[in-house]
Specification:
Elements (H helix, E strand, L loop, with lengths): L3 H38 L1 H16 L17 E6 L9 H9 L7 E6 L1 H9 L3 E6 L7 H16 L5 E11 L2 E10 L14 H6 L10 H74 L1
Parallel strand pairs: 1-2, 1-4, 2-3
Antiparallel strand pairs: 4-5
Helix pairs in contact: 1-7, 2-7, 5-7
């Protein structure tokens, strides 16, 4: 049985932990609102841009572009977008479990976020480049990562580029998925645009591009890649904040439950000691 002093010490310690987790929960809730708004606000534009890309590449005729070239995949690059910090439940572990399924000999990683970099270095996988991004991801950060991946593909150092990130669905649900990034084409896996490929390919009359499909594609492709990656960063950050909010709320609830249990045990022990002392006093008086 614990002593009353030990129980008081544990109650105080768990109370301090509860205050910390409660503070982190409030901070995550504040950041989540902004991150969620930014992630959801960009999806309509992403859907429109994806529609333009699919219409243009489907009806491009004999036009070719290096970013559209499909090659036999001997080596691939993966843009791994993780969180900067932990304490967000199974968010990072689910993402890294998906990444660990890839062949380490034929895969190089471009990491975004401190936890992604730590995973690649800890598992001794090939690292092509590392990047950081803020709590409010900037478009310039996405452009830098996209340029690195694009250069690897154009220099033929890799034959395929994929994005592994966490897709924000709602506050309670985040899904680690893989998105085909290069060569540019039909998006499979992480459907940031939330639109079936069949609808995009055959969902209406043939589009007419001015001045031409070739001119539109030449301008579109690099911007399309930047925006897809930017949307992935926004989804990853919204997922991180929502996962941390839920994790810290669960930790706070567990701490409060433990405090109630320890307080009850302390009161029972204290009541027992008081009863024992009263019995000893009563016994002494009878003697």
């Amino acid at each position: 049985m614990h002593s009353s002093r030990e129980l008081r010490r544990r109650i105080h310690s768990v109370g301090n932990t509860s205050q910390i987790t409660k503070s982190m929960q409030l901070v995550a809730a504040s950041k989540l609102r902004k991150a969620q708004e930014r992630a959801l606000a960009g999806r309509p534009f992403g859907r429109l841009l994806y529609r333009i890309q699919r219409e243009a590449t489907t009806h491009m005729g004999d036009f070719t572009h290096p970013l559209l070239e499909k090659r036999e995949v001997r080596k691939r690059a993966v843009i791994l977008i993780g969180a900067d910090k932990g304490l967000c439940g199974a968010l990072n572990s689910n993402l890294f479990r998906l990444a660990s399924e890839l062949d380490s000999k034929s895969t190089v990683f471009i990491t975004a976020g401190r936890k992604a970099w730590q995973f690649v270095t800890r598992t001794q996988r090939q690292l092509a480049a590392e990047f950081e991004y803020h709590d409010s991801p900037q478009y310039s950060e996405a452009k830098a990562i996209a340029a690195c991946a694009r250069d690897l593909f154009l220099r033929r150092e890799v034959d395929q580029v994929q994005i592994m990130a966490t897709r924000f669905i709602n506050t309670l649900t985040q899904q680690a998925l893989c998105l085909d990034y290069l060569p540019v084409g039909e998006v499979k896996g992480l459907k940031i645009q939330d639109m079936p490929p069949e609808e995009l390919k055959h969902g209406g009359p043939e589009a007419v591009f001015e001045p031409s499909t070739e001119a539109v594609l030449a301008y579109l492709l690099s911007h399309y890649l930047d925006i897809v990656l930017y949307q992935a960063l926004l989804n990853a950050k919204a997922s991180e904040q929502s996962a941390r909010l839920v994790s810290m709320k669960n930790a706070t609830d567990n701490a409060d439950s433990l405090i109630r249990s320890l307080t009850l045990e302390y009161n029972e022990l204290r009541q027992g000691n008081i009863t024992k002392e009263l019995l000893e006093i009563a016994g002494g008086q009878s003697d």
